[in-house]
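The aim of this short unit is practical: by the end, you should be able to scan a pair of folded records and say something sensible about each. We start with the first protein, listed as its amino acid sequence and then its structure tokens.
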Amino acid sequence: MKSRRGHAAGARWWIISFVSVLLGCDTSGMGELRSYIDEVKSRPSAPIEPLPEIAPIDSFVFEPAGRRDPFVMDTQSAAAANQGNSLAPDRTRPKEELESFPLDSLRMVGTLQQEDVRWALVRTREGIVYRVRVGNYLGLNDGQIVDISDDAIRVTEIVSDAPGEWRERPATLALTE
């Protein structure tokens, strides 16, 4: 108990000393500062420059009569184009695991041969290795594997040129070591 009282008395002494020092600080420089502030406030204010003239802009009235709304998709013509376009991707097909990765983030790391089926080994950026074969899909653009060789995977992607217009684009994943 005695040691706690001794610490409390020492702490009080330091607090009292600190407050005394703060109260005893020299404030003689404050007079100079106050006189400078008063002198700045007494100066006449400078005139404010007028705002620049803004030239009027000619208005344009858009008359939409007989024109297509550019913010609304023309679903009839897109549907008609899809009916005649056999390249349109099948949106009802269940997505495969590697279709959630951009094609340039995938790396071919090897091949396997099991019976009559050739498999390719594809690694993601996360380091997970997948086994794929001809007919599997990968990449974000409905890319289907069309050929697997010892040193590359050939893929055919389906990309949109315009709403309802599709084309095939070849791509290759080369073997990396």
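Turning to the second protein, read its sequence before its tokens, just as you did above.
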Amino acid sequence: MIRIELQLALNYQIDAQGADFVFNIHAAQTAHQKVSFENLWISQPVESQIHIDAFSGNRYMRLHAQQGELNVTYSATIDLMHHFADPSQIAEVPMHALPQEVMGYIYPSRYCQSDRLLKLASNNFGHLPQGYSRVMAIRDWVQNHVAFTSNSSTSSTSAVDTLIGQVGICRDFAHLMVALCRAVNIPARFTTGTDYGADPVLGPPDFHAYVEVFVGNRWYVFDPSGTAIPMGLIRFGTGRDAADVAFATIFGNVQSHAPVLQATAIVDAALGTLQPQRTQQALSTDGGFAQATS
């Protein structure tokens, strides 16, 4: 088991009109990710509402803030009890057998224009044996064709933009991998967390975007940017692309400051908690689906 202690702080300056926020900063509760403790503090005396998506486990918090400074802090203890699998035994799921809940992740979306990448994906991956290995080939292709470059993209950069520019940050790597998977009919979704294990040379700890791909009737974790240690990734939200799971969506005139994050692994032999490490096994923190019968 992996235990992560998370601390997160957000700071905003709000003008006289006030502003509305939708936050996705609460760690998701899933079959293999449990939040054993959490605490939320909001500096202003405002009410907040939390909505939990029944399928994804995403937790969205809404609030209306008044003029002045708004500080939001969130701390949590998260236990990751990964599902491990042998990659060679993980097959792709035929289209007719995909669960209905997964179908939304096979179509193009705002930042993942898979319909514009059909020929590219077919030429590079259409001939490969189907299964987890084909997803790994897509991940490796993205890593080999895009250079991780800080401040090289904007919130409007799409998968096609990243393909053309060949530079990006974690968000861009994730969008391109998602789009290429969908272009060969493999469901894939955009996932947000923290960049546990990232090289400090890339900057202070930050939010992170990675990918979950539906193969073997389960969502498996992939980090196309290669900057984090997948075993230490905690999930905040999953969606079709970044538009669904921004850590903060803001309506109003607001000055934002850089978020402050810290994710620390608690290693304790008595508790059975381990240090996250890179592994060749397939990893999932999501519950699986029963095998469909035809």
